[in-house]
Amino acid sequence: MDFEKKTGNYCFLLRDYYEILRTLIDAFLYTERISISNHQCSNAYICKNHPGLGLQWQVLETTRLSRNAVNYEGAMISKETWESVHPKVEQYIIILGIAINKRIGKK
Questions:
Q1: Domains and CATH numbers, the chain
Q2: For residue 66, what is the DSSP state?
Q3: The dihedral sign for the CA sequence 10, 24, 35, 41
Q4: 39-49 helix and 57-73 helix, angle to the nearest 10 degrees
């Protein structure tokens, strides 16, 4: 986290957390034999069809758009932006990990 503190740019943390989240969403959908080719649609699918997970569309969409701005426009991510999404993204990573383990029979 030294880079972030020195530069005030949290782009790498946001991007890496988003990739973890994306991988877990894909893995969760795979347990249903669902394969969706773009992030926005898979985020919408999981929010609409699995409300019990508690994933909020707005959080996923804000994080996705921020990640896209980093990847495609070279945007910087401020500490404030990072802190606004980080707690929820971290919570969603835990929720999805537990849900996937239940689906594949692990505790």
A1: 2-103 (1.20.120)
A2: H
A3: negative
A4: 170
Question: Is the separation of the CB atoms in 77 and 86 below 8 Å?
Answer: no
Distance CA 75, CA 26 (A): 25
Question: Each residue of 33-60: pLDDT tens digit?
Answer: 999 999 999 999 999 999 999 999 999 9
Q: Is 1 helix (H, G, I), strand (E, B) or coil?
A: coil
Hey, how many other C-beta atoms are within 10 angstroms of the C-beta on 57? 13
Cα(37)–Cα(14) distance, integer angstroms: 21
* Tokens representing residue 98 in the block: 């537990």
Q: Read off the pTM.
A: 0.91
